[in-house]
Amino acid sequence: MSFLLSLDYFLTNFLNRLIPHNTLFDYFFSFFSMKGGSILIWMAIIVLLIIFEEKINKKFILYFLVALGITSIIAFGLKNTARRARPTTVCEKDFSFPSAHAATAFTAAAILTYFDKKRKWLYYTVAVLISYSRIYLGCHYFLDVISGAIIGYIISQLLLFVPDTYPSHRKS
Fold first, then answer.
1. pLDDT tens for each residue of 93-122
2. Could you tell me which of 104, 110, 157, 172 has the fewest CB atoms within 10 Å of its CB?
3. Is the dihedral of CA 78, 91, 120, 42 positive or negative?
4. Please, are residues 135 and 145 in contact by the beta-carbon 8 Å criterion?
5. Count of CB atoms within 10 A of residue 42's CB?
6. For residue 132, how many other CB atoms are within 10 A of its CB?
7. InterPro entries under this entry (predicted)?
8. What CATH class is the domain 2-160?
9. pLDDT tens, 27-56?
10. 120 and 100 Cβ atoms separated by less than 8 Å
11. Closest CA to 17 of 96, 140, 135, 144
12. SS3 call for 94
C-alpha cells in the first residue's frame, strides 16, 4: 500500500507541476473546477444540443440529470466512507477520494457520447479538463481523479444498459 501511495504522491506532484502556475492558468482551471461549475458546463452543452439538434428529447435530458445525480450520490457516499484528506486545505472541506468532479464529468461525457458520437472529442476533452483542474489546483490526488473518472464511466455504462431506461434516440 505504501508503494501505491508513494506513486500517487509522485504522479500528483508531477501533474500539478506539468503546467506552470500563473494567473492565466489559475483562472482557466478554476473555471473548470469551481463549485457547481462543472455541472454548469454540462448544462450549457445540453442547452446547445437542444437548440441545434433535432433528435434530443425530454427523456434524454431527464436520463442525463438522473445519471449525474446517481453518480454524485455514489461519489459522495464513497468520500464519506474512504475519508481521505485533501492534499491542501485551500479546496472544499469534504473528503478527497474519489473526485466527484471527475466522476460526474466522465458520466456526462459517456452519456453525451452515447447520444452524439460526432462530438465525442469535445465531451471527453471537457471531462479531462475538469478532472485535471482538480490536480492542478491541489484539490485532489491523482488516484482520486482516476478513480472518480473510472467510477463515473462505469456508472454511465451500467445505466445505459439497464433495459428500458436509456434514451430511445441514438444518434451516430
1. 778 789 989 999 999 999 989 888 888 999
2. 172
3. positive
4. yes
5. 24
6. 20
7. PAP2/HPO (IPR000326), PAP2/HPO_sf (IPR036938)
8. mainly alpha
9. 877 777 776 566 778 888 888 887 877 677
10. no
11. 135
12. coil
